[in-house]
Amino acid sequence: MYEAGLIAKLAPSAARRATIAAMKFVTALGLSAVTLALASACSSSTQSQPVTFHKDVEPILQAHCQSCHVAGGIAPFPLVTFADAKPMAPMLAVATASKKMPPWGATESAACAPRFGWTHDPRLSTAQIATLDTWSKTGTLEGNLADAPPPVDARPGLPGVQMELQPAGPYSVSATSSDAFRCFVLDPKLAQDTWVSGANVIPGNAEIVHHVILFTDPAGESAKKTLGADGGYECFGGIGVQDTSILMAWAPGMQAQEFPPNVGTKLTAGTQLVMQVHYHPHTVAAATSDKPDLTRAQLRFNPATPEYALVSLLLGNFDKTEKNGDGFVYDSSDPQALSTFVIPAGAKDRTVTQRVTLPPTLDGKNALPTLRIYGIGGHMHWVGTKVEITAHRLTPLDPEPQDECLLGIPNWDFNWQRVYHYDTDIETLPSLRQFDQVTLKCTYDNTLQNSKVQLALSQQGLKQPADVKLGETTLDEMCLGIFQLVAKVAP
Ligand code: HEC
Fold first, then answer.
1. How much distance in Å is there from the Cα of 56 to the middle of ligand 1?
2. What's the rounded Cα separation, in Å, for the pair 21 and 27?
3. Is 399 a residue whose pLDDT tops 70?
4. S-S: 343 plus which of 108, 137, 309, 468, CB 3.0-4.6 Å?
5. Can you give the CATH number for the domain in which 162 is found?
6. Is residue 211 part of a domain?
7. Atom 11 of ligand 1: nearest residue by CA position
């Protein structure tokens, strides 16, 4: 089982140091850019409305940046007030022009252009990027407070929340310790089968909570473990529950997960939840890192059986080719191809292909219903650089193409993982039916030119890349597709 390895094994304290160095560099660059730009602004006479903070910049920061750039948020500095933003202006221009900020992986390319856009897509338009650039180059004017957008609550909870669950007690991570994975057993006390229509995670100490995954535990396996006073147990390699699926994966900057009224995830009576929290006590301020965490989970339920059931599924992580040609796909045309999942030390641009053919039935009786892809994501570790997920349909449903790229992440970044949701109606979501094939292509760079490999190695006290195999630890790799699939509930 690799589920528990789904998200973040290790987050880069070294990356943060590197970022600070980069920030200094960018600031230096940015300042000279400002000087130049001011010179050119003076010579141009066609400026109409000056770009100001309150009128032009603040709305962008509110909608696209403040989910992380707030006091106590995961970003290293707030971007809320004029005073926050002004000294950062050149960096804002650089970080947004390079598309480093806001973080987002699902980028269209010639190789992969999904048919639909994405919901909650935080990316800035070309005009917004230009606005930040102009603001930084034209004297970072404050403008009139009267032009400011109404303030927003940067961290809204789950609308209509009906249940809030928290661990038996707080959990402390010392500022000097390394990453910790703690699993908390939460009991929603479900007397009957229940449909979840929304879920959310509210980090207690937002500065150390890196990722949270809510797993289901229908057989109550987790409650039989030896639990600490916090109601939790260590769970680095996995949550140690056989019968489990993912209810929600949360990462900073993510909204509450809300399903439309006709969609729900079924929890059978008596199901426990296991909340796996990845703590990354990286922060420079030891005092805040030391503050105990009490992360809460929020749930909302469907009043009745919904029209569609949503299940989360992980596909991939095959080490070998399976009987029917599924699993690890050996590429005989590639002279360097290997027959198992290994990324040799020094291999650059090595692609591993994995394939799954959807079975005709799941229970041996009923034919697999038409599944619609509600949400999709990829998962790799540090060596991964690119992931592409495609579908090949045996007999496409009109108007769907036979072959379709479902998701492409051309610049994989382990720090910014999420599930992406197509911006379209359920009945028009990309479908998967029996005998359709899903192919995952994961590309890796196991050289020192890959800065993430460099960091991961240095954190282990290593200097040279080693062969990377399939596994759960930091220096292992994975190739996974995360699928949230919906199917009509049988009447
Ligand atoms: C999902 C959280 C998140 C969002 C949204 C976000 N940031 Fe960031 N930002 C971070 C984190 C965390 C860092 C620290 C560097 C890192 O870990 O990548 C950062 C770093 C930065 C930096 C430092 C420069 C650099 O290259 O590292 C700038 C500038 C920045 N953000 C600007 C913005 C702007 C402008 C927006 C909105 C348009 C934005 N960010 C949206 C989380 C976020």
1. 19
2. 10
3. yes
4. 468
5. 2.60.120.310
6. yes
7. 75
Instruction: Give the chain's domain count.
Output: 3
Q: How many CB atoms lie within 10 A of CB 362?
A: 12
User: For position 424, which CATH number holds?
Assistant: 2.60.120.230
Kind and range of the H or E run holding 427: none
Q: How far is the CA of 77 from the centre of ligand 1 (A)?
A: 9
Report the atom number in ligand 1 closest to the C-alpha of 124.
38
pLDDT of 490 reads: 83
- Atom number in ligand 1 closest to CA 74: 12
31: enclosing H helix or E strand: helix 13-43
* 37 pLDDT higher than 90: no
Q: Is 91 in the pocket of ligand 1 (CB under 6 A)?
A: yes
pLDDT at 35: 33
- CB of 75 shorter than 6 A to ligand 1: yes
Q: Could you say which of 269, 303, 337 is where a domain stops?
A: 303
Expressed as residue numbers, the domain containing 72 is: 47-109+117-147
What the block records as the tokens of 436 is: 């359709």
Q: Which pLDDT tens digit goes with each residue over 60-106?
A: 999 999 888 888 777 889 999 999 999 999 999 999 999 999 999 99
Distance CA 316, CA 332 (A): 20
- Of 283, 303, 323, the last residue of a domain is 303
Residues 294 and 322 in one domain: no
User: What pLDDT does 20 receive?
Assistant: 31
Residue 201 counted as domain residue: yes
Tell whether ligand 1 has an atom less than 6 A from the beta carbon of residue 23. Answer: yes
User: CA distances (Å), 339 to each of 342, 354, 436, in order?
Assistant: 8, 12, 24
For residues 346 and 465, membership in a common domain is answered with yes
pLDDT of 19 > 80? The answer is no
418 lines ligand 1 (CB under 6 A): no
14 within some domain = no
Measured distance CA(269)–CA(110) in Å, rounded: 47
Task: Report pLDDT for 11.
Answer: 28
- Name the CA radius of gyration of the chain, rounded: 24
* Ligand 1 neighbour 350 (Cβ under 6 A): no
Looking at the structure, do residues 464 and 374 belong to the same domain, yes or no? yes
Ligand 1 neighbour 93 (Cβ under 6 A): no
| Ligand 1 centroid – CA 65 distance (Å) | 7
Ligand 1 within 6 A of CB of 95: yes
Residue 193 lies in a domain: yes
Tell me the pLDDT band of 341, cut-offs 50, 70 and 90. very high
Mean pLDDT, the chain, as a whole number? 85
Q: Which residues of 35-60 are buried (b: 16+ CB within 10 A; e: fewer)?
A: eebeeebeeeeeeeeebbbbbbbbbb
- Report whether residue 22 contacts ligand 1, using a CB cutoff of 6 Å: yes
Mean pLDDT to the nearest integer, 411-420: 87
Q: What is the pTM of this model?
A: 0.83
Q: How far is the CA of 22 from the centre of ligand 1 (A)?
A: 12
